[in-house]
Amino acid sequence: xxxxxxxxxxxxxxxxxxxxxIGAAYFGTIGLHELGHAGTALTLGSDRVxxxxxxxxxxxGQFHLGLTTAESTGWSKSDETLxxxxxxxxxxxxxxxxxxxxxxxxxxxxxxxxxxxLSFGNQMxxxxxxxxxxxxxxxxxLGKEEMWISGVMLLGGITYDIYDLAKDQGKxxxxxxxxxxxxxEDEDDEFHIRPVSAPLPGGGYLGFRVEW
Length: 212
Prior knowledge:
Blueprint: E1 3-4, E2 8-9, H1 10-16, H2 18-43, E3 49-52, E4 56-57, E5 63-64, E6 67-70, H3 77-104, H4 112-134, H5 147-168, H6 171-176, E7 192-200, E8 203-211
Antiparallel strand pairs: 1-7, 2-7, 3-6, 4-5, 7-8
């Protein structure tokens, strides 16, 4: 004989895990941004690429949440521009990719809040770097590049986000806090985690049953 306690919904679990999802999104955002730089440097033939995922100061004393340095001997000005712009570009691709995956219904519901937070983190990173480029903050990726590059990137980001918001109507923010989830039309909407227990000779059993 088994007895079950009150079911704990996926939404309840998602709310408890908000700090965990924020942490995962933070490091995922930093990692993807730096991967954009590092991958570009390797493609350009750099033999020495160093990636820091934790806050650090560069050789000039400027503070960064993450930093990729690469051997740039022989790089042209276009190569340097490509290296610098691919960090914010990777952030935008990460944001857009996560949003489209969520809307497709292809992400397992327990993972949707994490993916939604990752999308949000990449979105904020993208707009920060674009804004810093427009403000000519030279310590950032786009601060030393021509202003039209930041302007074009800003226009592309806003265009996508307007399209995304019109199609999704803000559901992404509800998913972040477990208020709502994406699903296929034929998918059962029920997902519960139920504690279950059973008396046994000399003791008992306590566990969890997942229903979806």
